[in-house]
Amino acid sequence: xxxxxxxxxxxxxFKEDNxxxxxxxxxxxxxxxxxxxxxxxxxxxxxIWKNSSEEIKKELLxxxxxxxx
Length: 69
Fold this sequence. Notes:
By secondary structure, this protein is mainly α. The chain has helices at residues 6-14, 19-32, 38-50, 54-68.
């Protein structure tokens, strides 16, 4: 049995999607609130985080902190 990475599976699943399709998937996942969607959203966040400037990271952290209170 081949051992597959969840991260790689999620990335491969969206490689051919355009921005509109990715946005729709994100919004649907959030709207439905299914626990099964959390790994995919986590992978998306990881990609955003790794490829963001320090300024964008600061904005993300401020947004998170504001909405965690």
